[in-house]
Amino acid sequence: MLGSFSASDFFPHIGWIIDMFKGLQGRRVKSVQDFDAFYEQMFDLHNKEKQEGSDDFVDLLLRFEKEETVVGNDKLTRNHIKAILMNILLGGIDTSAITMTWAMAELAKNPRVMNKVQSEIRSHIKNKERISFDDTDKLEYLKMVIKETWRLHPPTPLLLPREVMTEFKINGYTIPVKTRLFVNVWAIGRDPDTWKDPETFLPERFMDSNIDAKGQNFELLSFGSGRRICPGMYMGTTMVEFGLANLLYHFDWKLPEGMTVEDIDMEEAPGLTMSKKSELLLVPLKYLDH
Ligand code: HEM
């Protein structure tokens, strides 16, 4: 819905009529209602089934509401909580899941890299039932695999739209104030002037390089940059490192019977976020080392 074309964005006064005829308005209302019902259900569960000592971020927000905590100039209301949850759920889950899917697809396509990253994880983490957040710190090659995944498959390929505040010139074109601007980080990540063999999945390219995805190196802008940079950057990185480390430590991954690496389809689905178009099918085989 967020990525769909909306006439009211371009014609604020009359565009809503077109949106209404196209059914966009109705779909928006339905999606807000669905989200609302979901949040209400989540609040109910938290109120009813709260276990002694457990405290997650929904509990925390509900407590702020109960205690009438003032944030900025306003008391934190139920609507604020819903808005915060929407940011976290929409911004955080899809993007991290998309990264993990592309990483697993690239690893399945590149057995050399798969073996290398699994050896790193298994040599650092021995006899553990579950990998902890601290364990991922020392997994340097895994971090390179994730950066390389972000280079080729940035989950938000055009970042969030920006609006030009001051007129400027680029390549002979004058860009007027209020122009809507998209930054194509997908293209930046595959630019042959910046990256050698840009279409090749090669985590080693980050070995002796200072490039990271924290918004200061414009070659790799998976989390965006500037004031609109992803506020969940560290949480997102941690979730992806932690999720992949567990998947790769506990299982070996084989292709389904009769399938070869050439059959793994890397086509992208269109949208605000860029997921893999077809499902990734892999067979997990339990790795028994503990
Ligand atoms: C691998 C994980 C993630 C990736 C690749 C990612 C990527 C991005 C990108 C590219 C943007 C736009 C930045 C810009 O335009 O400059 C963004 C915005 C945002 N992200 Fe993330 N993100 C991830 C995880 C998370 C997590 C875990 C959260 C929250 C817990 C989160 C919350 C948000 C929010 C709220 C915004 C909008 C900020 C605004 O309105 O300006 N993201 N993210």
From TrEMBL:
<keyword id="KW-0503">Monooxygenase</keyword>
<keyword id="KW-0812">Transmembrane</keyword>
<keyword id="KW-0408">Iron</keyword>
<dbReference type="InterPro" id="IPR002401">
    <property type="entry name" value="Cyt_P450_E_grp-I"/>
</dbReference>
<comment type="similarity">
    <text>Belongs to the cytochrome P450 family.</text>
</comment>
<dbReference type="InterPro" id="IPR050193">
    <property type="entry name" value="Cytochrome_P450_71"/>
</dbReference>
<keyword id="KW-0472">Membrane</keyword>
<dbReference type="InterPro" id="IPR036396">
    <property type="entry name" value="Cyt_P450_sf"/>
</dbReference>
<protein>
    <submittedName>
        <fullName>Cytochrome P450 71B26-like</fullName>
    </submittedName>
</protein>
<keyword id="KW-0479">Metal-binding</keyword>
<keyword id="KW-0560">Oxidoreductase</keyword>
<keyword id="KW-1133">Transmembrane helix</keyword>
<dbReference type="InterPro" id="IPR017972">
    <property type="entry name" value="Cyt_P450_CS"/>
</dbReference>
<dbReference type="InterPro" id="IPR001128">
    <property type="entry name" value="Cyt_P450"/>
</dbReference>
<dbReference type="Pfam" id="PF00067">
    <property type="entry name" value="p450"/>
</dbReference>
<keyword id="KW-0349">Heme</keyword>
